[in-house]
Input
Amino acid sequence: MPTDFERALSITIPLVASLFYCALLMLAWKSPRNKIARIFIGYLVLMLVWSFASFMMRTGIFPGPLAWNRIMVCGTSGIPFVFFHFTQHILNRTRLSFLVKIGYAFYGFFVAANYLGLIVKEAYLYEGNFTYTLGPGAAVFAAVGGSYILLSALLLIREVFRDPPSFWSNRLVYPSIGAVLMLAGSLLNLLPEVGKYPLDIAANTVNAFLLAYAIYRYRFLNTTITIRKGLVYSVLTALLTSSYLLIIFLAEQLIRGKVGYTTFIVALPVAAIIAIIFEPVKDSLKIWVDRVFFGQQYDFRKTLKEFSHLMTSILDLDQLANSTLELLSKALQVSSCTLFLSDRDGNFYAYATYAVADKIKAETAKAIRIDKTSPIIRWLSHQSEPVLTTKEIETLPEFQGLWQSEREELEDLKAQVLVGIKMHKNLIGILLLSEKESGDPFTDDDLELLSTLANEAAVAIHNAQAYKEARTEALRDELTGLFNYRFFQEFLDKEIARCKRTQQNFSVIFIDLDLFKAYNDIYGHLAGDAALTKVADAIRESIRATDVAARYGGDEFAVILPDTDAQKALTAAERIRHNVKQSFRGAGYDSNLLTVSLGVASYPKHAASKQQLLSCADRALYQAKNLGRNKVCLYTSSGATNFSPAANIEKAAEAEADFLKKQIEDAYVSTVYTLAAVINARDNYTYKHSEMVTFYAVSLAEGLKLAEERKEMVRLAAMLHDIGKIGTPEYILNKPGPLTPAEREIIQRHVNIAEAIINQMPFLRRVAPIILHHHEAYNGTGYPDGLKGEEIPLEARILTIADAYHAMTSDRPYRKAMTGEEAINQLKLLAGKQFDPSLVPVFVRLLTSEFKNATVA
Amino acid sequence: MPNIFDLLKEGKNKDVWRKCCGFIDLSMAEFMQVQERLLLEQLELYAKSGLGKKLFGGLFPRRLADFRRSFPLTTYEDYAAYLSEKREDLLPAKPDYWVCTSGKLGTYERKWAPYSRGMVQTHIKNFFASIIFAVCSKKFEFNLKENYKFLYAMAPPPYLTGMVPYGLKDEFPFEYLPPLSVAEKMTFEERNKEGFRLGLARGIDLFFGVSSVLVKIGEKFSQEEPGGSDFGKLGALSKIRLAWGFLHSKIQHRQLLPKDVWNLKGIICAGTDTAFYKERIENYWGKKPIEIYGGTEIGIAATQTWDHEGLVLFPDANFWEFIPEEEYKKSLANPGYVPETVLANELEPGKRYELVITNFRGGAFLRYRVGDLIKVVGLRNDRPGTGLPQIVYEDRVHDVIDLAGFTRITERTLWEALKKAGITHGNWVAKKAFAKDHPILELYLELAPHENSKTTEENIHQALRSVDADYHDLEELIGYRPLRLAPVPEGFFKLFRQKQRAENNLDMETSSRINPSERLLAELAAFRATQ
Output
């Protein structure tokens, strides 16, 4: 006679099993219906039939134990064969497929035999005890069914212990354990004392659980299978509630057995006590389920809340990126997480990386750049839910265009998921997550969390970028667009602090325009500004996105190169030198004046502090200048310098015959200009004088409507008319009193010197007579040849007037400047004597803007 | 990333489908995006390589238009000096395999082509697509099992077909009949014989080979008793299989056919005659073959899908350019002429094109004239649901017989005409000849003693008139019959083939029936002289 407890247990096991199978069936039903899923569903249906019919049979409900038993055997007798089929399919075997067919034939036979009473003859409840009599077919079924389960177990175990291990080896551990349990449960039926309890159902239930776990854990069905936490918790709650009610029922039975009766008053405190005991059990089970099904636990809502707080409280992009990546890495337990942001060209570069104790991976990620033409960018841009797994990259045909190197980069990073961050449908960033530290796949909940976070992050990152841009604008040099001195100093401080922390190195390049002052003097400030902008552009093009270029002073620039040693910095500097030179070549600039000298120093190799580093770079720069400009020098503690070999190679290339002539001409002109600039630099008056004489002379030539070519000659002559004063001692030029005849003779020689210089340049020879004769007088009393009237070239006559007018209206050491009116009067007075009488009125009217259309007679 | 076998074991058939066959679902724009992206990768690799520097001065155009403008079209001659010496140091990527053409083709003893790891992976994936198409009946619905018996009746390494099973090993464990190590040492005929012998004992699930072999075996089955005189020598399993097949055929009230003995899951065939034989193969074997198109320099280039109609080019196999017919005609007439090319998205249905390819993934050939003619039969195919152009491989460019500028007879045209004239065997070759100053098509055809050559010639002539409108016009307008039938006795070509094999020469297996080898023509001329 069974005790109440035994009876309750024999009812409870099939009931709990039925509930469990219902839940599993729901999950399997929701998953895509491939072959494995279909067989598994079949298996679950049979188990449900078995356990539910067993439960009903033990309760004695209509139509009675025998009828339920017949139904139960329909489930029981199919299990070995369906399980074998399932095993075959998982192992993808064809060799034993005939056994599957034979097994199903057996199944049909056993079902029929059972209804004929050949397996179970009779089944009934006697005093609450379930009793049955087996027929001759039972032994056959036990032998055949047992063999099938045994064979399944052996095949699975063989695959698990296969050497070398296959892809499936570790994945089949759980199904193997389940098969062994199932076999053991079936064998226990042979022991009547144990067999009277439904231990076979219990064993099969555990097997089903193991299978379900293996299917989920290793994605046997399909990775799109969705097991939501909510659903798992619902199943758990249902199971706990059943167990709770069952325990109350058992307790009630126990009290009734001991006391003889129960009342509501007694039952209520019992239920309450059980509930109190149950609560921690429930919590423990929840944690256990989380661990089994979802790996390392994270709280979805808590993570979201923390993230939202981050998004609203941080405006600094660096801080935002680092905090976001850290939060994500910790929540999802991934080994690294990288944020890519879009640059101006639409390419994506690694902005920040968070790696768990893996420095190399962070460095690898940093170097990665996702090209705007990459199918990854295209895909993420076009998807409304831009979450991309590497499995999709491997399988979707759209990604066939991915480069081998790009695939390798993703592999190096062990990338698993890429999430697009979109603002107004524009892709502004990408989150790349590497594999989880546990090796578990990403769940749907993980992907949902990432998608939600990316949505939230979009606005925050957009705002932080805008803020950073605005802030950066304030730290930029207005003319060149490079960073300003302040930002450079700030960044340098940060970089030194970073390198002290990480034991890394960086370098600084100082860049100075070689003859910029001369260029500015000759071509004016506007041209000088344009040249500075061009140099800045060339620097920008020569460096990486991570480098920082700044305008350090007037014509000085500086570049900070993070994670760059001295030799690499030297290469970068040489690239800058070359690109600056190239950028002025053939672009209407004086490329011989516009060269740069560069000094390179490295931290911590050359200096231990910021000031030391700047000083080292500065010294290297001056070394480059001293060595003849247009050079790159690397600072060395001994004071010696290293030169980049590329400079020599380039020089050799430039010496090619085709360019030689042009080079010489350019060099000569530049030299002349430089000499002019040197004179101007010695004597501020002369600089301004040349500039103003050019202005007056060109204006007069325009007023006379001279042809363009002749105007250009006037311009050149005016600019160079005092070039001969290079041979005039400075004391004579700036003498406050009247000159002695000897001094006068010396100074008069400047036109001959000028002619000699100009004649060295074939392409300027036409200008030489103008300069030579610009001190001739119209009446023949001038020098050097005493020409008169029309014998003097027209351009020279124009220059004479312009030169005299500006000389008269300027302060000189020996006299005060005349007013404009006085000078005009003087011009008029000397018209026909010193000046061409036909030009003076035109010039005067031009000065007073009285006429526009003067012509030369 | 798990290989195809692992994915299938996990039940991820859809993922395998998308990975291998998903390209048919690409739009034309997406197809071109894949093409242009991989071209850019190839150009970057090429620019850095010794070959790139030697041939094109290290050019690296970043735009497609610049690429087509700045690179000239090439032929094997441009590469011969480097590839025949296998100069791996000059290549854009280190090769895993070197494959070559079989037998004498054109000027070169053999043409060599390097295959980098990336190329091998791509072409193997593409071949796997053909396998899936061969075994599937609709999208996503296919089944491949471990150790499927694969009768692989194609040439061994270093031919392209020999590289495929080695690449497939990394993706799926097929059981080859005969095993690869054994097959490599066999002749073509031995390989086929041994394959079918093993297949009789163990079954055949997949076949890749020449379609005429399947037809020949089908014919043999339909003409002989099961097992023939060798029945007694067969093993027990073979006998059971044959007996089962025999029983099956009797239930069907017909003679024994291969489909009674074997249950082939998929058949893959290469070559133009596949289309010609496909109904007969289905009749004999119960399964239509999938035609694939490939070659030494182009790898696995295109495949039919499960509807067995037009072939679809793989987007990641090569960069595809096409010389329109009128352009390649000009270039044939004037070797100095540089023909224009069009891209895959500019193809027009019904037109013929000469193929120009650029290898991807570090291959050697850039804007390379393969010498193959394809015809576009449609710009989409709604049955498998693809919006990509449908092509058929027509012939070799040089294997076309131009008759008086009126018509260009290809092997395919002749197959169609012969079929229409009731001639179903493939024992024929054709060349261009002259009769009374008129160019004619001289057809060497095996005829049985009872067949009348005059009647046969007339039948073929009428068939040609019907299948080729230009041929029809030629006679109508110029006024002469452009066909001359030169009958040869039955077994002539077989005898020639045997002689060739004895000399280990694969000419007859690889060269076209149009303008065949000098050797065969000499043999034919000698035979005719004795008549």
Q: What stands out?
A: The two ends of chain B are 66 Å apart (CA to CA). Chain B has 21 helices and 19 strands.
